[in-house]
Design a protein that fits this description.
Blueprint (H helix, E strand, L loop, with lengths): L5 H10 L36 E4 L2 E5 L9 E8 L14 E12 L4 E9 L3 E9 L2 E7 L7 H19 L1 H10 L5 H13 L2 E7 L6 E5 L14 E9 L5 E13 L3 E6 L2 E10 L4 E9 L4 H6 L11 H10 L4 E7 L4 E3 L2
Antiparallel strand pairs: 1-2, 2-3, 3-4, 4-5, 5-8, 6-7, 8-9, 10-11, 11-12, 12-13, 13-14, 14-15, 15-16
Length: 340
């Protein structure tokens, strides 16, 4: 799956030590291959006005809007310091990594985000836990960049990397990731990072906490999954750096007309899905894990000590962080689901 390579490619920019100096802040012109979508018109009341969503160690803060407003602004931020920097009574500090505008649709309970500026950064993880939530934070956060500057930033770093490893190695790496050229990767990257993102919103029963979840894309083509059981894969690499997969009979995906059940590695996940039969892609939206949905996880008590703003923030961060929208490839030839 192409999406999985984006973080690795972006990290190379930091490894290469690319620093952009004196570039200013170019106008938000269209860039090659970038689909600069307009935000949909708002519908109804803005239920997320002035609200903050906690999702793991990331937060999204929505500006308050007046009744006549046609859009609002938002900031996406991430914990900025390692866990050992905090004392017993401290609360997390956050670094802004994305800004943009948003609109809302009260009828279907969605909010659409349009990123306008983002940072490049590296996310670090700690294998220690903070009361059952894994710790992660960001470092090497670049200044916020619009689409034009961000594309130049990525291109400069990747071209330098190509010069260091040689075109043959670089092109094979791109090909293994599913891209025919550097330009094709940059086009995909820009749309991934700067394309509109639509989220489903809901609230806790006491209305204190905002929940956000990804929305499944529309189905395309023929449903080749309904009523079928698919299997996971195990990946290995040969001496020539070719990827070899074998069916993992212990990991199963059982599909109905619109839902699925995953079983494997001691975990059972249920949810809904959508598909694109032309590209053999499937999107899995997780909704329960081992019998618990988001509301059930949120209802669990917070520990007596933590670094979130309050207990509701801790419980929301844990609940929102538990469920994802995952994109995979599928093969009808051997009924396998593959992350590649």
């Amino acid at each position: 799956m192409k999406k999985n390579v984006l973080l690795g490619l972006s990290v190379i920019l930091l490894i290469c030590g690319i620093v952009i100096v004196g570039c200013g802040d170019p106008a938000d012109d269209d860039v090659s291959g970038f689909i600069d979508e307009s935000l949909p018109a708002p519908i109804g009341v803005n239920a997320v006005s002035g609200r903050t969503c906690y999702e793991g160690f990331e937060i999204i803060t929505f500006s308050a809007t007046a009744g006549s407003a046609v859009s609002g602004t938002y900031e996406r931020s991430y914990v900025s310091d390692p866990i050992w920097w905090y004392g017993a009574n401290d609360k997390f500090d956050y670094q802004v990594i994305e800004t943009g505008t948003y609109t809302w649709n009260e009828e279907v309970k969605t909010v659409t985000l349009k990123p306008e500026k983002i940072s490049n950064y590296v996310t670090y993880f700690s294998y220690e836990t903070n009361f059952s939530i894994e710790i992660s934070w960001v470092e090497n956060v670049s200044p916020l960049m619009n689409a034009t500057l961000y594309r130049s930033y990525e291109q400069a770093g990747l071209e330098q990397y190509r010069n260091e490893v040689g075109s043959a190695v670089f092109n094979k790496w791109l090909s293994n990731a599913g891209f025919s050229s550097l330009s094709a990767y940059l086009d995909y990257s820009m749309n991934f990072y700067f394309g509109n993102k639509t989220k489903q919103y809901s609230f806790s029963t006491d209305n204190t906490t905002l929940f956000l979840g990804d929305v499944l894309p529309a189905n395309k083509g023929i449903n080749e999954l309904s009523g079928q059981t698919y299997y996971g894969v195990t990946t290995n690499w040969d001496d020539n750096d070719n990827r070899i997969t074998t069916k993992n009979w212990d990991v199963t995906y059982a599909f109905t007309a619109s839902g699925y059940t995953y079983s494997g590695y001691g975990e059972t996940i249920t949810g809904s899905y959508s598909y694109d039969s032309s590209s053999k892609s499937v999107w899995l939206k997780e909704e329960t894990k081992n019998g618990k949905n988001k509301a059930a996880i949120y209802a669990e008590p917070a520990p007596s000590e933590h670094f979130f703003a309050d207990d509701d923030a801790y419980r929301a961060a844990k609940a929102n962080n538990e469920f994802y929208l995952l994109q995979y490839s599928y093969r009808t030839s051997d009924n396998t689901i593959d992350w590649w």
